[in-house]
Amino acid sequence: MKELVEKVAALAVSFNKDAVAQVEDGNKAAGARARKASLEIEKLMKEFRKASIGASKK
């Protein structure tokens, strides 16, 4: 689960950088990267919820 948390943190940093670039600079390519990162974060968060529930039941 630690690896999963590290992946989410890395993607969050990437998302934040690209989202800021889109909002502040109007960078359309950065917006596309931010949207892609948000989808990956969503997928990893679902995995985290499953792993977290499994760990709490042990």
How does this structure look, described?
The chain has 58 residues and is mainly α. The chain has one domain (2-56). Helix content is 91%, strand content 0%. It contains 2 helices and no strands. The protein has helices spanning 2-25, 28-56. Helix 1 (2-25) runs antiparallel to helix 2. It is elongated.
Short recap of the structure:
This protein has 58 residues and is an all-alpha fold. It has one domain.
SSE run: HH
Could you say which structural class the secondary elements and strand pairing correspond to?
Answer: mainly alpha
The end-to-end distance, rounded to whole angstroms, is 14 Å
- Coarse shape: elongated
Q: Low-confidence spans: pLDDT under 50, at least 5 residues?
A: none
How many DSSP helices?
2
Integer count of domains? 1
Roughly what percent helix? over 70%
- The portion of residues forming beta strands comes to under 5%
Q: Report the count of strand segments.
A: 0
CA-atom Rg in angstroms: 14 Å
> What is the mean predicted local confidence, pLDDT?
95
Detail the topology: elements first, then pairings.
Blueprint: H1 2-25, H2 28-56
Helix pairs in contact: 1-2
Name its key features.
58 residues, mainly alpha
